[in-house]
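Example record used in the benchmark description.
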Amino acid sequence: MLGGLSVRIENLPLFPLRMVLFPGMMLPLHIFEERYRQMIQDCLVEAPRFGVALITEGNEVGGPAKVREVGAVARIINVGKYPGGEMDIMCVGLQRFRILDFNTDKPYLRASVETFADAPQSQTDLEHRVRAVRALLRTYLDRRGATGESIPELPEEAEALSYVPGVLDLPLDQKQRFIETDSTSARLDQIARLLQHELGLMDQLGPTRPMHGYRRISPN
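Model output (structure tokens):
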């Protein structure tokens, strides 16, 4: 399971980005702005994690930014440092969280957050949905001409599979709705409808329709 029990985290450093981080999703970042260099250094000393939240107003670089209420914790798993202080870091998405309040006493934004997991669901229903979504994804990838090593390894566990939209080329608002949904089965149903829609468009327009990107989701 990628979710887990609800936990309150005080003063979690926040990285406002124009992207949506999903649990299990790999996230490479180049850290160059001074406040975020300090943030990562603080994380490495205190706890190697920070929160990623989608920007609603403002920019990633420069002044303050407003963010959506729901985001995901990112765990730092690798850091490469440059002589001038810039860094390349690799992270993986962990639990989703809801922001409770903000703390602005540092150059970077921090927040008190509460993680949340999906509501309990019938394993039988989930297994049925997993089979359906995996079959649709294989058909979709086959129709896009993916062969051999280019075919991704699809998650078998229901919750991990339900986070596949995190690595598809979808509008940010649509991705945000996925991570705000607290039901694995509901996300799988949404994915099935999305893929059925895409396959229908392929039937109408032919195989030249641009392929949505797909990158590996980590089960960690």
